Amino acid sequence: MPTKRILIVDDEESIQIVVQFGIQMTTDWVVLAASSGSKGIQMARTERPDVILLDASMPEMDGIATFHALHSYPETAEIPVIFLTAKAQTSDQKKFSDLGVSGVITKPFNSLYLPDRIVKLLDWSL
Prior knowledge:
By secondary structure, this protein is α/β, with parallel strands linked by helices. It contains 5 helices and 5 strands; from the N terminus they run E-H-E-H-E-H-E-H-E-H. A 5-stranded parallel sheet has the order 2-1-3-4-5, with helices on both faces.
């Protein structure tokens, strides 16, 4: 099985680092990072990751707007998206699920277990 490519789109560099650390410590997956929705869209269109981990709350272009934009391009429309969010309210979780995302992971999370969560949400194998 080819190595998975994960794109993290988050405006907080510390989250990017934590995600990258957790994934690279436990898998051979490649982690790409973008610091904004627009950069994430551009990177997704050129790099074609296997999954996008998308921060729900970002300035300028939030996660929902980024998600909709990703689905407007044929080359990114089918890429699974998992929201990373600090919003743990049931209504927030339902709003994200109703969009058709592949999953929601609530911040804070244990970065070493992040690959396991991704695998379960996407029905992959490690």
